[in-house]
Amino acid sequence: MTITNVLAREIFDSRGNKTVEVQVYSGAFYGRAAAPSGASVGAHEVQAFPEGGASQAIATFNSTYRDKIIGTEITYKALDSLLAEEDEGMQNLGGNLSVALSLATARLEALEKEIQFYELFGGSTLPRPVGNVIGGGVHSGKGSPEIQEFLCIPTGAPSFSEASFANSLVHKKAGEKLASSIKDFTRGRNDEGAWAPKITTDSALQVLSESCQEVSADLGFEIHPGLDVAASEFYSDGKYSYGHKELSPEEQANYMAELVEHFGIFYLEDPMQEDDFDGFSELVKSVGKKCLVVADDLTVTNSERLKTAIDKEACNSIIIKPNQVGSLTETEKVIKEANQSRYASVVSHRSGETSDNSIAHLAVGFSAPLIKTGVVGGERVAKLNEVLRIEEQNPELEMAKTRI
Q1: Catalytic: 239?
Q2: N or C end of the chain, less CB within 10 A?
Q3: What is the pTM of this model?
């Protein structure tokens, strides 16, 4: 069977910004996928859209690429290979339209084979959900902590359903604590559904830590705090700016290590700016046996940057965001390279999300130890609920081990 038609359209993401959705047809059957977008975007990601945005990407696709795809075989690898030849560097279509095409084709491929999407890749375990509890940085605005995300990870949960429920309880518990301690807290939430209080980093960590401990005691399994520092967002001229103080790279690394020790941080994402491989390496040496040192902006789902990180031992875990690289084939390549080095893969959403649940299937299909997709909000819960359905249909699947 071959591709008989392709439709690309503009839709809205969770922030009300325009993005793209694609349907790839074979006769009356089709696969559909949509692309998200990020707020804290790594400098080394492929561009989401060409100049002119989503509408320009769609116009270019319709005029130049659509007819070349129609009539080709229904495999995402063939589609990705064609796009790589026709649009080197994704300068014309951008990563969002390219990855939506790739994912939609993969969905159609699974439909043709009469299997679930995740079964295209295998998959033998369920991921653990990383929950976003308190927000700061570019996700939350002025007056919030510099650190972007205060997270919870239910490392001891026996099932995905119990892990997801634990994250929701931590989120609620933190909201109650913030409401009781901050007079003018309006229970506002940020782009990813995390609480967005005007609070210091230390206070946010205290609330997070207490909430994890209390819910852990209630449920009877371990829940650990984590951080997505997004350090590049407040790094400039060789300094990390925390409002009232500035830290050198060495001081930043020491500060991160102190937080790991004091609060029992299990997950530490982007603790140093996006080109500081050596700074990441120092942190792996100091805390890498105690926590996941996770690279996002450092590696941006890019094979060459991952190789550098592996050579320098700059992390022990990486974020996987398909639209950072614009291709399911390249995403798969990076995950396999990470697995070969025993790096944990964290399949992740973006701050500007859609209701597309593809990353749920990728997390299961590639046996990723973790999936990072928030706690609340329809576009976040869409992914969690899809993993719940997969868990229900496959009771033999065990929870992945979060290796360090």
Answers
A1: no
A2: N
A3: 0.95
